[in-house]
Amino acid sequence: MLQVNNLHYTKSRHVILRGLSFKIPSHRTVALLGENGVGKTTLMRLISGLIEPNPHSDIMIDGKMGAKIKANLSYVSTLDWANNYDRVSDIVDYFKMGYPDFNEQRMEELIKFMRIDRTKRIAKLSTGTIEKLLIALTISRDTSVYLLDEPFGGVDVLARKKIMQSLLHWLPEEATVLVSTHYIQEIESLVDDAIILKDGRLLAYESVEKIRKEEGLSLEQYYTQLYIEDNGGRE
Ligand SMILES: Nc1ncnc2c1ncn2[C@@H]1O[C@H](COP(=O)(O)OP(=O)(O)OP(=O)(O)O)[C@@H](O)[C@H]1O
Questions:
Q1: What pLDDT does 108 receive?
Q2: 138-178 pLDDT tens trace
Q3: Fewest CB within a 10 Å sphere: which of 85, 131, 170, 193?
Q4: What is the pTM of this model?
Q5: Where does the record place the ABC transporter domain (predicted)?
């Protein structure tokens, strides 16, 4: 379970997140939605402990806080830390050595599934292939929470659909998954709930099924409607 209480984050006097609170139970996959610059990446970096929130903000995973949550969380946002001469197989080796919960067999299956050439140097990989590798590394760990930040930005449409459809199949059943994306229509069938951010605050945290059944809307229609309403009717 991932719990965020009263999360505030200010950077260079610019308030980015203003008092976010939500709780995502285990066995739930949640889309994190919001316009460019709203703070989705910032939220993921805060959850993962890469940056520090303002005082009196709490982030808990399975009841743990602070540095202790790192073991229960999988988030790989970049390969900037790797050496340009590293090959895909070297990165896999680093993960094998660095994470006791790294599932080597799952990683091998994902490499095949995503058609990643394990002999290629990182510096020679295309943007989309790096994104596929980041997804594969993230979901090859056995943790309770998975954060995927705009994982499909550069992935071609066929691969994206294929990966999306099978994403949950690779993860432990009880996993909590938070995935940020602008591909709202495509993610809709994958997620249970959606968190919608606007102006640094939580505009909605709603079940996708409820949006469909009770509001009669698709997730994208619901998102657009909420944004327009919050803008006082302006698009
Ligand atoms: N290092 C930084 N210094 C100052 N401001 C920053 C820094 N990084 C991000 N920001 C600001 O924080 C805000 C949130 O950025 P963030 O990247 O979290 O948004 P996002 O919702 O992920 O956007 P996108 O959908 O475009 O990826 C933006 O206004 C951005 O300009």
A1: 96
A2: 999 999 999 999 998 888 888 888 888 888 899 988 999 99
A3: 85
A4: 0.95
A5: 2-224
Task: Report the distance separating Cα 45 and Cα 77, nearest Å.
Answer: 9
Q: Containing H/E element for 196? A: strand 193-198
- Ramachandran region, residue 232 (left: φ > 0; alpha: ψ -120 to 50; beta: rest): left
Backbone phi, then psi, for 16, in 5-degree steps?
-100, -50
User: Does 170 map to a domain?
Assistant: yes
Among 12, 14, 16, 227, which is best to mutate for testing ligand 1, by the most ligand atoms less than 8 A from CB? 16
- In short, whether 40's Cβ falls inside 6 Å of ligand 1 is yes
Both tokens assigned to 226: 């909420």
Per the domain annotation, does 202 fall within a domain?
yes
Q: What is the dihedral of CA 74, 203, 131, 175, to 10 degrees?
A: 30
How many domains does the chain divide into? 1
Among residues 94, 80, 76, which one has the least CA distance to residue 122? 80
- Cα dihedral 130, 135, 141, 143 sign: positive
- Which residue's CA is minimally distant from atom 9 of ligand 1? 42
**Unique residue bearing structure tokens 């550069």:** 154
CATH number at residue 15: 3.40.50.300
Please state the separation of Cα 47 from the chain's center in Å: 11
Instruction: Please name the residue that has the structure tokens 């994982």.
Output: 151
Chain position carrying tokens 């009770």: 214
Residue 190 lies in domain: 2-230
Residue nearest to atom 16 of ligand 1 (CA): 39
